[in-house]
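Hello forum,

I keep getting stuck at the same step: I have a sequence, I want structure tokens, and every attempt I make locally crashes halfway through. Rather than fight my setup again tonight, could one of you with a working pipeline run this one for me? It's a single chain of 264 residues.
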Amino acid sequence: MKLFVFGGNRFMGKLLVKELIKLGSHNVTLFNRSGTGPSGTNIIQGDRNNPKDIKKINFKEYDYIFDMCLFKPKQYKLIEKYLIGSNLKKYIFMSSAVVGNSDFGKYSLEKEQVENLIKKSNLNYTILRPVYVVGEGSHRPRLGYFINQILNKKPISIEGNGESLINLVHVSDVVKLIKSSMSKYDNETVIISNGENLSIKDIIFNISKFLNNPHYNITTKGESPFINTEFIFNKTHDDFKQLKDILPNYYKWLKTKGNKQYGY
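Reply #2:
Ran it on my machine without issues. Output:
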């Protein structure tokens, strides 16, 4: 069985590739601009926005394609004819739970447009919509920002009143569901969420409690890692990590690697 990943060289995609390699005899190929990826993979360097680079991919070789970095309809249209003309068992598209939420602007609209194109094709697909993804290795320091502001006694920027409820999901749980979609969720759209409804203020409070540091200041000035809009969904699986389960390993990673990565 041959597996192909668009992206796969950072955060969620990188963890997914490592897990796909563990499946055993599967041949895993990555396509990305940097030409990098975990050891044990085949790499095709290219830009998915360049039709000449897309031609480097022999789509007929692969059984499953995981598309981790598709954002615009024109990007999908560049590969559509190759997907339809292939022998794919499934095309797995990483969309977002922001679809249908106008507060997320163009990003939401374009993800929805891509979903509609996929649904109109004759592909066997799974569309995955994760909520805010957090965890070790994240290129976005959402939790790391709060932790560092609290520890360094600096003001924490939030949007609005910080009381809109949101959901988080740990990257390992997202990857678990991506893997399971190889044999489940045919022609389905699946939300990925831990179902824990927390406001931004709740998250900050829980982090301060974890750090045994109850004193912090909140301000509406500056840039916040979360927008102030409701973003809640039912949990996907009972065993998905809650914030209290996420913080210990994330904090350990932040101290050893994350702070350097984020430039703190």
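The first strand starts at residue 2 and ends at 6. If your local run keeps crashing, start a new thread with the error log.
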